[in-house]
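yo, Cytochrome P450 76C4 is done. seq:
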Amino acid sequence: MRLISGFIRSLVNGNDQFSRLLLTVFVIFTLSWYVWIYTKNKRGAPLLPPGPRALPVVGNLLSLDPELHTYFAGLAKTYGPILKLRLGNKLGIVVTSPSLARQVLKDHDVTFANRDVPKAARVAAYGGSDIVWTPYGPEWRMLRKVCVLKMLSNTTLDSVYSLRRKQVRDTVWYLYNQIGSPVNVGEQMFLTVLNVITNMLWGGMVEGDERASLGAEFREVVSEMTELLGKPNISDFFPGLARFDLQGIERQMDGYMRRFDRIFDNMIEKRLKMDKKGGSRAAADGNSSEENKDFLQFLLKLKDEGDPKTPLTMIHLKALLMDMVVGGSDTSSNTIEFAMAAIMNNPEVMRKAQQELEAVVGKENVVEESHIQKLPYLDAVMKETLRLHPALPLLVPHCPSETCTVGGYTIPKGSRVFLNVWAIQREPSIWENPLDFDPDRFLNGNWDYSGSDFSYLPFGSGRRICAGTAMAERMVLYSLATLLHSFDWKLPHGEEVDLTEKFGIVLKKKIALVAIPTPRLSHPSLYE
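structure:
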């Protein structure tokens, strides 16, 4: 700037015609340059989306509300269905309409198939080696194939039904022994789902007191880990400060992760010893080795037989176990708790659901997973619960691998893109009486979890759609059917149902559901 101003002064002070000509050329050139830049910006790449005014350095961080899903929904009413937020050195983009969600998850699916991995997630997922955080490419496709086609396929899930059934029946027996006493529904369902998952992971290798203590340890650690994953981290917003870990989030996460890692190592060592001796219990009983095969057996076999070009390593294996334990337990148990709370808040829904169960199962029988396909109303109850209270209200944020255009606005490479599924699924222009809990809206059979309709995508859509949808669906429906068929439920005297939400990477009830069970089945033996 000093050189330019000095050059202009010398031209102005010059008396000869040549100097004045040079000044005229310089002014014309400068004006032309500014016009060219302005025209280029106006006619070239589209502008960034609108958004609230940002402060220097910190951007919009200081104005963020802890309840991000409702805060983002409020901003969308002011700035429109696509908006930007300055999050320190990061640019956040919030999408709140089905048409724009389609552009992100379908039209530009490959571009948005990556993640901006938070520091806490990188620690928890063995450096981001799991299916949630791994970058899109051959390694991710291998993990996806393992999960969807092998580990979480309907055939594999069918083969481990007996493991799930045992844990659900154990919970029924526990609740039967609490008759007349208040029960923390969410806590019990968390332990049930966690036991179901760990039983599916390593089967009958852990029994009795060891299983009880392991379940208690997992519950504590999973709760802490999901809280850390949802906590704003300075290291994510200002990468230059990441090495200092100013909030200690990475150190805490590393401690929790190491506890899991020790458990995984112990389970893997046990399984390898049992397999070396030729000794799964199913094999000892003369059954096919494929029957009752737990997931850990399955993964170890895949590791040994995998594609050498894209091998399934022990790190991948542990990262997938972590996904199952952390990702599967909180999401499913919270959905069950929200569903039970909504049902208890709507006596007519409770009546219809139990009526259907009586017709299909009968009070002389217990619920089996084979009954689930014959329970369309209960299926509608689950879908309505996931509409109002999606497990991941903003999904897992996407990150474009290159700059692109969405909704007429530029989305720069590396942005953190939030899809506010919670707001989309409550949009009045799409859903009639959107705040009402009305399962009947799903009885026409036109809604599923495939992500093909961008008005309803509780599990996401596109390449990064949730790999555990089939397992979550089975767990939630089987548990919910069993709770409603086995017991009547009422609130403690003077209590009212509270459906207030608490935002996190996983949506939770702010106030736990405490309810009193009363037996419904015809004979006490059905509870054993």
